[in-house]
Amino acid sequence: MKVTVGSKVTVEYSIYLQGSTGSLRDMKSFKASFEVGKGEAVPVIEDAVLGRTPGESVVMEIKGSDIFGPYDEKKIIPIPIDKLDIESSLSPGDFFHYRDDENRIHPFRVKKVENDLIWADFNHPLGDETFILHLIIEKVD
Question: Which domains does the chain have, with CATH numbers?
């Protein structure tokens, strides 16, 4: 049975950062089930399984933005240093967090430090990376 929109699909997959030293055999695999076309999986995964049959394998590159969403310059905002609980200085590339007025924690990457401001990048830190996906279609209903 081929995967079509509306099919319930069970897959086993591994995903790792391109350029990492691990091989597909060394990666931990995960299982997932989803209905194609319902938005239960990221679109690039749904596209990868369409038209395939149980037992088929797919190996492909995936951009981080396809998983975590596109990079958004509006998610880089200045935060006064005195609003952060910093015990030492921060440098570009460091990860830190911002605690809002409702005590929620928002992680960010330091984009730049300028005078008394930290330019905080709230985009997903892996959004600009490339990944290798190895996916095996186990079951199609």
Answer: 8-68+127-140 (3.10.50.40), 73-121 (2.40.10)
